[in-house]
């Protein structure tokens, strides 16, 4: 694999750390800034809002900017956002810093996925994209637990200063290791918007919203589930989250070669397995070892959906894939927010701490139906293309005979 993928993975590690570490630092932030933990929870949503807004806007603004320069600029904005968060004097400025740090997230992964795919042979494109995403999964194993521990010992600001340093390192690595790449032919904002409006691209984005929401309907409440239903101590929750991160990494490793070999079957299989495992978790959550095994497997199959979904929208966007690729990360963050909201609504309705598993299974099943619909339309489109091609050949032969 090209060494430039390492630079993309380092940047992904920093992005993944800053996205998820806030969940572990909410008590420290709330105490330091004199607010409640639920109010501090808006800092998680602020980052997601930044992602959803920034992905299409920054991608559109940089559609004519050379890829390497765009990646470095996006990482610079990410670094400034984290520095602003670390130095924020109050809750309002910290909220603004979180939005600023989230703005380049989707655009970076959108452009980064296109760059990763350009660096390798066509038959290894999914593996290259999955390698970039490995940085995101390793962040959940190393970056988030380490950042949480650092914040608890030295204060939450220290965590964001370290992430700022990672951002600077990533900027240097991107500039030094990513080669100059030509812009995609047929690009331009008009071409990107037309590609985004493709029926299959929109179906892919909807699949991401519903399918991945199934993961976050459960993940958002995993700490409380394992203490209330499994009987684990609060200190063991970090280990549970690390197991989920290990599962994510295993899923990313498997997704690359599987997607290169058979994209749609990989997507169908991972969504079906996700729906089934979320249902199984409702029963295994009451026993420690089965619960921990199920958590790891949910992390694996949940993240296994990301690479085929990324490749699906890029392939269907054809010659102008960047905006569609970036919008896919907006879809993932809508899934995060929507899954967490629906899982929380089920708990608030009095259905119990195991109710988010049912919600998640239904959402994953809806994602599977949408993916199957996209596959059926793909087959119909291919069949129609073959019929039209045969008709044209027949017409050409008739013209030759008449002539």
TrEMBL record:
Principal location class: membrane
TM helices/strands, residue ranges: 42-63, 70-91, 103-121, 128-150, 156-178, 201-222, 234-255, 267-285, 291-313, 334-351, 357-377
Listed GO CC annotations: plasma membrane
Domain Major facilitator superfamily (MFS) profile: 4-379
CDD domains, sorted: MFS_NepI_like (cd17324)
Keywords associated with the record: Cell membrane, Membrane, Transmembrane, Transmembrane helix
Pfam families registered for this protein in UniProt: MFS_1 (PF07690)
Species, as recorded: Streptomyces alkaliterrae
Molecular functions (GO terms): transmembrane transporter activity
Topology of the protein relative to the lipid bilayer: Multi-pass membrane protein
Keyword Transmembrane: yes
Protein name from the UniProt record: MFS transporter
Localization, UniProt: Cell membrane
InterPro entries: MFS, MFS_dom, MFS_Efflux_Transporters, MFS_trans_sf
Highest taxon of the lineage: Bacteria
């Amino acid at each position: 694999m090209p060494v430039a993928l390492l630079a993309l993975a380092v940047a992904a590690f920093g992005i993944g750390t800053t996205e998820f570490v806030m969940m572990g630092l909410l008590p420290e932030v709330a105490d330091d800034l004199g607010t409640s933990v639920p109010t501090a929870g808006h800092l998680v949503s602020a980052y997601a809002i930044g992602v959803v807004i920034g992905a299409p806007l920054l991608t559109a603004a940089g559609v004519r900017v050379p890829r390497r320069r765009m990646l470095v600029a996006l990482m610079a904005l990410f670094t400034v956002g984290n520095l602003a968060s670390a130095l924020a004097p109050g809750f309002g400025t910290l909220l603004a810093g979180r939005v600023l740090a989230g703005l380049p997230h989707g655009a970076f992964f959108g452009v980064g996925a296109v760059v990763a795919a350009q660096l390798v042979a066509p038959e290894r494109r999914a593996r290259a994209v999955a390698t970039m995403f490995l940085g995101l999964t390793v962040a959940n194993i190393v970056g988030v637990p380490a950042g949480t521990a650092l914040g608890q010992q030295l204060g939450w600001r220290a965590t964001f200063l370290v992430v700022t340093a990672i951002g600077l390192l990533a900027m240097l690595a991107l500039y030094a290791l990513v080669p100059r790449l030509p812009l995609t032919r047929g690009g331009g904002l008009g071409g990107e918007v037309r590609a985004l409006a493709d029926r299959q691209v929109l179906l892919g984005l909807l699949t991401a919203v519903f399918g991945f929401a199934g993961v976050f309907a459960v993940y958002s409440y995993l700490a409380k589930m394992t203490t209330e239903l499994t009987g684990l101590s609060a200190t063991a929750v970090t280990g549970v989250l690390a197991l989920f991160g290990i599962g994510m990494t295993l899923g990313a490793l498997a997704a690359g070669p599987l997607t290169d070999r058979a994209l749609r079957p990989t997507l169908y299989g991972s969504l079906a397995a996700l729906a089934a495992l979320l249902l199984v978790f409702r029963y295994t959550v009451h026993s420690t070892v089965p619960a921990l095994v199920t958590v790891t497997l949910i992390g694996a199959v949940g993240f296994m959906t990301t690479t085929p979904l990324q490749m699906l929208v890029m392939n269907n966007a054809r010659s102008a894939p960047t905006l569609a690729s970036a919008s896919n990360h907006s879809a993932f963050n809508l899934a995060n927010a929507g899954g967490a909201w629906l899982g929380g609504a089920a708990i608030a309705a009095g259905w119990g701490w195991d109710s988010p598993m049912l919600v998640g299974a239904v959402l994953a099943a809806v994602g599977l139906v949408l993916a199957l619909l996209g596959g059926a339309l793909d087959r119909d489109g291919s069949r129609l293309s073959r019929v039209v091609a045969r008709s044209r050949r027949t017409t050409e032969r008739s013209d030759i005979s008449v002539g």
